[in-house]
Amino acid sequence: PDVPMREPALAASAMAYHPFHAPRPADFPMSAFLAAAQPSFFPALALPPGALAKPLPDPSLAGAAVAAAAAAAAAEAGLHVSALGPHPPAAHLRSLKSLEPEDEVEDDPKVTLEAKELWDQFHKLGTEMVITKSGRRMFPPFKVRVSGLDKKAKYILLMDIVAADDCRYKFHNSRWMVAGKADPEMPKRMYIHPDSPATGEQWMAKPVAFHKLKLTNNISDKHGFTILNSMHKYQPRFHIVRANDILKLPYSTFRTYVFPETDFIAVTAYQNDKITQLKIDNNPFAKGFRDTGNGRREKRKQLTLPSLRLYEEHCKPERDGADSDASSCDPPPTREPPPSPGTASSPLRLHRARAEEKSCAADSDPEPERLTEERSGPALGRSPAPDSVSPPRLTEPERARERRSPERGKEPAESGGDGPFSLRSLEKERVAEARRKDEGRKEAGEGKEPGLAPLVVQTDSASPLGAGHLPSLAFSSHLHGQQFFGPLGAGQPLFLHPGQFAMGPGAFSAMGMGHLLASVAGSGNGGGGGPVTTAGLDAGGLGPAASAASTAAPFPFHLSQHMLASQGIPMPTFGGLFPYPYTYMAAAAAAASALPATSAAAAAAAAAGSLSRSPFLGSARPRLRFSPYQIPVTIPPTTSLLTTGLASEGSKAAGSNSREPSPLPELALRKVGAPTRGTLSPSGSVKEAASELQSIQRLVSGLESQRALSPGRESP
Amino acid sequence: PDVPMREPALAASAMAYHPFHAPRPADFPMSAFLAAAQPSFFPALALPPGALAKPLPDPSLAGAAVAAAAAAAAAEAGLHVSALGPHPPAAHLRSLKSLEPEDEVEDDPKVTLEAKELWDQFHKLGTEMVITKSGRRMFPPFKVRVSGLDKKAKYILLMDIVAADDCRYKFHNSRWMVAGKADPEMPKRMYIHPDSPATGEQWMAKPVAFHKLKLTNNISDKHGFTILNSMHKYQPRFHIVRANDILKLPYSTFRTYVFPETDFIAVTAYQNDKITQLKIDNNPFAKGFRDTGNGRREKRKQLTLPSLRLYEEHCKPERDGADSDASSCDPPPTREPPPSPGTASSPLRLHRARAEEKSCAADSDPEPERLTEERSGPALGRSPAPDSVSPPRLTEPERARERRSPERGKEPAESGGDGPFSLRSLEKERVAEARRKDEGRKEAGEGKEPGLAPLVVQTDSASPLGAGHLPSLAFSSHLHGQQFFGPLGAGQPLFLHPGQFAMGPGAFSAMGMGHLLASVAGSGNGGGGGPVTTAGLDAGGLGPAASAASTAAPFPFHLSQHMLASQGIPMPTFGGLFPYPYTYMAAAAAAASALPATSAAAAAAAAAGSLSRSPFLGSARPRLRFSPYQIPVTIPPTTSLLTTGLASEGSKAAGSNSREPSPLPELALRKVGAPTRGTLSPSGSVKEAASELQSIQRLVSGLESQRALSPGRESP
DNA sequence: CGGATTGGCACCTATGTGCGAACC
DNA sequence: CTGGTTCGCACATAGGTGCCAATC
């Protein structure tokens, strides 16, 4: 019932900014929608065969439309749609029926990515994240600002990182190329924010960071880190779940937000020197590798000489002093994307002559696979300095072109009236959001470049961007959908909002917590003190083109000792499948080239000005409770999901590309080989799956045995 | 009903090891029991006037007897006794009635102090804890090992630090002297372990540390740190609450454990050089102050000379190498008490000639106040080195003597049969416990000094100890009680176990969370990784004399931003009084002089051997479910507790020394001036209270406003 | 003046970073 | 040999310690 209402608005707004059209909702099968991004997860879906049977009409599907389609499919199947969303009644109504948490709380979460500018800088170059055996943090820290939550209700915030496609990459000739089919996907782990559960008020008080989430390539990791495959592309996802207990996670509705600009390729060693330099210039822990203002690398090599180097080591104070001069000196939190014109300008330029030339030559020429499109897009040209001058960005004309294109997903079938879902509503919402961001930036003391906001136009820099980076296969179509919210989204993601799951509590316990959850216990460090997150980029708000990416979200939870220790979740090893294949789609403003406080930037900002001006950090501000960005969708899992066999059946019926015959949920969730969407054949990956199963089992047993040994709890 | 059963066992065991007598349970008033240690907390007690009216018969009361007395008093007053404890039915019964957490879960918590030997070393000298504006950790880290919890039930573990008496101290002539009445007590804060709530299984998996708890003297602290008065004596307390939500804390039963050897005097600067040296020798973070094996301080001063010092600074590697030589190099977690004979021997000796002579002269000569008794006790004599040779310890004969003595607290009235409560049972339990510890030590790789276990005899070193360090006033009697469990208790505390509170949920919300909770959010650091707690002392098991101390425990919770942020607890500032004055008494093995791996120590260990041999880290091991160490007691608060006036009444009726007329819970809980137990006059502290109230209010408002600014959440 | 407190300091642990050689 | 991985390293942040001179 709810979903349909929003459909029009979403489609309309999308069309206003994007050329992509959404296919008729009814025609869009959930299977494709859910399985695209993470084919391996699909088996977990509990959608009725009928709803899933339909093939994916067109890849270039608007995210919103997809969401609507999913909702429609659910409704079609007789599943209930969430009671949340659609009904604008204010939050204060809550007081009347404030039962136990959970019940009928009215909220309308809004999520914005912090340090968006920084992310955009990386995204333009093709973000790389190092993965090590011991676990590595993500550098542009994944941090979001949340608003619109019910103050008193309790929420669990978590994130996970899913495969963006099923390809393996290689960095060749200064650019990322597809190098074959993806390797078997590692068991996915959900990282529950250690503060969970906490009230909406608490979550909204300050940005929510996931600093403790670590990436690793160690398949035997026992820390609960996220295991990734090197040379593969991934997409971080953020989830909001209204639940007052981790144990209730299974019964709760997930609202998932995806920020396309945060995707990255996992590597064991940096491939693109520009990325390296960007990391060095912005990550405080890499300060040691920054140049003192001279020709960075060159100088460093020189200093490597016995005499000089020795001297430098003994003259720390001197270096530090010189270091502090520039702009980059903030702690872990992110800082200003452009380290500052003065010293920052050199970074990318000086680093590596060879690499520089090559990488910059990429331009708008699409890679073999569309996934890299956006990276080459903006055509950084020869200006290696990300901040020096705004690189070639799409002009208004270009943006317009993008908006036009989409032809599919016209108007989602069942989507009924408009009300809050009308284009108008969407527009207002977006404008309001932009205003908030703008104000927020000011409040945050990021006074620099007040006129920067308008640069939302930069969105275009990612024009080629919107299309390819997520699901390159069956899901590639959704990529276009990402752009649905294009330019003005500016960090404000769109998401599908599934309704409550109808399954009773008993079912869950019966199934057991087959999925695994990963989380860092509140334990140890960082908690006490009080360092204020320096987050310099918090209000970027300059977000250019916004793109929406929808990804399937089964429940590849991976339970770590920390999770167990702090959250009290039993670890039944492999027992059942997480029954919540809820999938959400989030559209966020995408790529925005660095925007130094140059007059040029200011001018550009002024030009686009009116569009992105609004408070960000802003306090309370009246707004629609159910913006068109949200579409409640209910996707109840079927019992079949509880067994591998059934899961396979589900995926088959849905035409998903997942073909894991494994009885273990993890396996079912794993992606093996190419999606071959619509295909049901278990293909030849069975063998692989078996071996993987073994490794996973080892992993799990390791985790279990470690529970007693893990350092976690309050270790100094 | 339950309580009585255990009485005999407790009394018997106590008698076996301690000369102190316990008065007839029924004759012992809860008022004295509860109010003694923290007079200021007493007002919060909800005991019926009748039960509390009775005066304390005899100060030299065994802890167990006291507990029994409390239980008896409660029963006498018609209060219900906890349904927990006494009924040995196994844990598996839980499965039958496993309702929502909380209900009728059968557990029998056992708590042992980690690094007991270290604590004992400090305790013998008179532990000092530095308090600073920015907050200081406790050095011997307060860490406990918990067992006997229901695996699946959820528990909240917390601790607080309460005034040990109402005196102010001064360090004069190398010893601590009472220097007048205590200053107004600061608002007490409960520090909830950040992992709370978690399942019993999780808590039992590894030692529970409270590293994040910090001490401060900053009355305006906004971090949620524990505020203490310098030059005052304090007693840390550990609490176990079975509850699956922090919000339910108010309705839950508290099981409180007190380890007398962990008491300390708060200082802004170390007074006793021996303490300083002990800290330096054992705290990894103070490595920089350790001597390279030479005359510590002397050498350092020499090096302070321009040339030398400069050299040293440039030769870190050299120093570090030398540093690693000794034994003490473990991370934050505790290490072996005796840093190692070789290098450790010098520490106390070389430090300060002047202080050395004086401090060592103290001997067994009791200080003006009995509180310092135990400190002088063991008569370290002239051997300043805590580890060099085992100080005068009780020989087997002496231990026997202790066992004989106790005549009081024969058998608590209602205490029915013996079963698990018989001396035999107690003995078995203790032996089992010792065995566990022994094994644990081995497993922990603490292979050193395998024969050390027997040194439990050291208990005696604390013989004078048991008596004075806690409540010097009305509670002094209980001190003796602490020794009740003497030698073999070895870290296994005795505790009074109040039953469930009869107050309905509604009442709480009506009152609001007047108490404040302090806790470090799971946020930030430490969580991720997996460093295994090095806890070298975990299995000490040598625990000598055990002493039990009972203290009143209202609910002086102080809510910090972290607490709020991570636990989702609303902060109603001052609204009501925490209705749970449940008081428990814990008896733990006390003082044990350092036990270096010397042949002498080994020999001693061999002598006492059989008594303390047993697994510690040990896996599952059959045991009594309701050991005599535990005595369930229900002490339901009266509504009167909710108002200051009533609280005062309560204290008055109980004859407590607290006389805070303040309407605010915090004030009521504060200790002002001397206890003058039995006195009801609000005395002249009203004025003080008023001013304090103001400061507290400021503090609270500060905390609230800070919630949004606090760094807490996941800051790098 | 002397006891208590404070703040800057050197030194330490712990951990995050990219580098570059070694390894495969 | 190449491309990818691993490991120790130097250097960074973050923060825990006692020292000591200055201050109250």
From TrEMBL, chains A, B:
Q: Which GO terms describe its biological process?
A: aorta morphogenesis; apoptotic process; atrioventricular canal morphogenesis; cardiac jelly development; cardiac muscle cell myoblast differentiation; cardiac muscle tissue development; cell fate specification; cellular senescence
Basic and acidic residues: which segments have biased composition?
367-376, 395-413, 425-449
- List where in the cell it is found: Nucleus
**PROSITE patterns attached to this UniProt entry:** TBOX_1, TBOX_2, TBOX_3
Bias (Pro residues) occurs at 330-341
Q: Does the keyword Cell wall biogenesis/degradation apply?
A: no
List the molecular function annotations (GO) for this entry: DNA-binding transcription factor binding; DNA-binding transcription repressor activity, RNA polymerase II-specific; histone deacetylase binding; RNA polymerase II cis-regulatory region sequence-specific DNA binding
Pfam families per the UniProt record, alphabetical:
T-box (PF00907), TBX2-3_RD (PF20627), TBX2-3_TAD (PF12598)
| Superkingdom | Eukaryota
Q: Which residues cross the membrane?
A: none
GO cellular component terms attached to this protein's record? chromatin; cytoplasm; nucleus; transcription regulator complex
- What are the protein's UniProt keywords? DNA-binding, Nucleus, Transcription, Transcription regulation
InterPro entries linked? p53-like_TF_DNA-bd_sf, T-box_DNA-bd, T-box_sf, TBX2/3_TAD, TBX2_3_RD, TF_Brachyury, TF_T-box, TF_T-box_CS
User: T-box domain location, by residue?
Assistant: 113-291
Which segments carry the region annotation Disordered? 317-455, 642-692
List the protein's name. T-box transcription factor 2
Which species is listed as the source?
Otolemur garnettii
